[in-house]
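A.,

Following up on our hallway conversation. Structure tokens first:
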């Protein structure tokens, strides 16, 4: 039989078995804490990344909008010049 109380029936010293189980439990609890810490750090990292991406996209959008506005103004100025020359 595995698990449960079968280990106490194996003929080993019960105190030694208890110490081994306590150590194993302590190791597992430490690993759980490490994993919880990794989860928390990953969450923070993802939140930062989530905020950075929209900021980068907004900056790119702003740059493109400015470029579009300059080109539109230039086009309108050239079109106005062309219309003036055509009327003469």
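Then the amino acids I'd put at each of the 88 positions:
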């Amino acid at each position: 039989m595995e698990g449960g109380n079968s280990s106490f029936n194996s003929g080993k010293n019960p105190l030694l078995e208890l110490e081994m189980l306590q150590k194993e439990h302590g190791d597992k609890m430490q690993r759980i804490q490490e994993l919880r810490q990794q989860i928390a750090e990953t969450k923070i990292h993802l939140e930062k990344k989530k905020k950075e991406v929209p900021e980068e996209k907004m900056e790119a959008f702003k740059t493109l909008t400015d470029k579009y506005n300059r080109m539109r103004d230039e086009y309108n100025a050239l079109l106005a010049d062309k219309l003036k020359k055509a009327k003469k």
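The two ends are 105 Å apart (CA to CA). Curious whether your intuition agrees with the design.

B.
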